[in-house]
């Protein structure tokens, strides 16, 4: 495995928001999100409440050691497995496909992909502590600390697929320009497979941005899964996995 891990100095200190700021952030969120937030461990809450990049990095640094135990262990977090299965349905040859795990975190998606026979997976994430845990799992060809909104991070047309779980999220990545960037990194005919919470999707710029890419002929939505429970412990927070295929007559750069 090539490990292009930039173990730089810590990007931020601990989250510094006041109890009052936290309270006003909670009020701005949909009721279902507030209900789930009230049951989550503090580091998980902090990733949703982060309002700056420094706060987000600090939240993941604090959460990394217990992320797997909290998300899959205590909550039965279902999205990584569902996204990996969706990707398998839309990629012809798993063993040959070059796949980007966008926001790889501790490598949960990579573990599922590895079991399904994907052997050329690149994991990218902003958080060094999360990537350090992913590196112990032995399921990535390469791990790269980087910003998924940075267009220059990967060469155009270099990927067969992008899989993304939990990263198209408020305060993480939620703009159409980034989706366009990921399309540029894909070869024509490649797929983007993303798991997104329904409440986040509805309250974000993503539906319009995705529709625009479809109208511009840059990609086609090829599958949207049924809404499924985000965790067996909470009834009314759900997610779907959407898969889009990049137009085959697109230039590798993604422009028409
Ligand atoms: C909720 S975690 C999901 C991790 C993993 N995909 C999973 O399902 O367990 C979101 C991840 O996105 C990463 N992230 C957020 N914004 C990012 C960005 N702009 N570039 C790269 N990674 C980012 C965070 O560091 C974090 O590890």
TrEMBL record:
InterPro entries reported in the protein's UniProt record: Methyltransf_25, SAM-dependent_MTases_sf
Q: CDD domains, from UniProt? A: AdoMet_MTases
In terms of superkingdom, the source organism counts as: Eukaryota
Xref: Pfam families: Methyltransf_25
Molecular function terms, GO-annotated: polyprenyldihydroxybenzoate methyltransferase activity
Limits of the Methyltransferase domain: 99-190
Q: What is this protein called?
A: Methyltransferase domain-containing protein
